[in-house]
Design goal:
single chain, Inosine-uridine Nucleoside N-ribohydrolase, Chain A, globular
Length: 305
């Protein structure tokens, strides 16, 4: 199995993406970064999810804040603890003492050219690892990024949450020389939603995983529907699905991508569609994805055990 690090600000959809990763990759560790909800809750969520489904996978604590600037957590999206109606979370599993940045560098050295990063969170940990070892991009096989929006920001008019939380980190990672695939917000919004019909099908499965999904995503579902979506949206899960099977991405393009770090457009993804900057193409950007495949894979994941 392909070896990965799951880099996460663990909340509702992250937890489901982690379940999918555990089924399809050798997850060498989960690294936690500031993002969705209070840091301590993110740590508990990762530990709890692994305790339930893969207790031997280690958790490494990483950046507790972005490199620069301020950000805010979004409990209104994910629930008070980040896992919807799952609020009494007291895992016995403990995180490792090794810092996430050091774990990333160690594992990259142990598996040079093999290790991949499932980056479904702000990119602070990976940026800090790069600052500590600028040869890191040569050692990482691929970085799968859930981040950025073409025009429909979900946090500001142009900013998608992961890039908005730490645009300096995103800019650094994009320009460091990693082999990057980006799954932007709009692609996930159009493809990775769980509408009422699919929600009922999942609810009726009555497996440990389906019950976990329903409880963890109840708040996300309510929030998403209040914004006009057909149901809960699962960008991290789609990103990990595409990492496992690139054919789920039905249209991609090699483009130069950068991130704005100033003003009202802070966190905006800047895509050079026409080669106007003359800069090297630095990312494979997913433009379209297969919804029926997303639905099929999600049902398959949650129907197991």
């Amino acid at each position: 199995m392909r070896k990965v690090i799951f880099d996460s600000d663990t909340a509702s959809d992250d937890a489901i993406a982690l379940l999918y990763a555990l089924d399809h990759f050798e997850v060498l560790g989960v690294t936690i970064v500031a993002g969705n909800v209070k840091y301590e809750n993110q740590v508990k969520n990762a530990l709890y999810t692994l305790e339930q489904f893969a207790p031997d996978v280690p958790v490494y604590l990483g950046a507790r804040r972005p490199i620069m600037g301020r950000w805010r957590t979004v409990e209104e999206v994910h629930g008070p603890t980040g896992l919807g109606s799952l609020t009494d979370i007291s895992p016995k599993k403990k995180p490792e003492k090794e810092h996430a940045v050091d774990a990333i560098l160690r594992l990259a050295n142990e598996y040079p050219g093999e290790l991949e990063i499932l980056a479904v969170s702000p990119l602070t940990n990976l940026a800090l690892a790069y600052l500590k070892d600028e040869t890191l991009p040569k050692k990482i096989s691929r970085v799968w990024v859930m981040g950025g929006a073409f025009t429909r920001g979900n946090t500001t008019p142009l900013g998608e949450f992961n890039f908005w939380v730490d645009p300096e980190a995103a800019k650094m990672v994009l320009n460091a020389g990693f082999n990057i695939t980006i799954v932007p917000w709009e692609v996930t919004e159009e493809t990775a939603y769980v509408d009422d019909d699919l929600w009922e099908k999942i609810s009726s499965m009555r497996t440990r995983r389906s019950d976990f999904f329903i409880r963890a995503n109840e708040t996300l579902r309510k929030y998403s529907k209040a914004t006009g979506a057909l149901g809960s949206i699962h960008p991290d899960t789609l990103t990990v699905m595409i990492a496992n099977d690139i054919s789920i991405a039905t249209k991609t393009a090699e483009l130069n991508v950068d991130v704005e770090t100033c003003g009202d457009a802070r966190g905006a993804m800047m895509v050079d569609w026409y080669g106007l900057t003359g800069r090297k193409r630095n990312a494979n950007v997913v433009l379209k994805a297969n919804r029926s495949k997303f639905v099929e894979e999600l049902q398959k994941l949650l129907s197991r055990g």
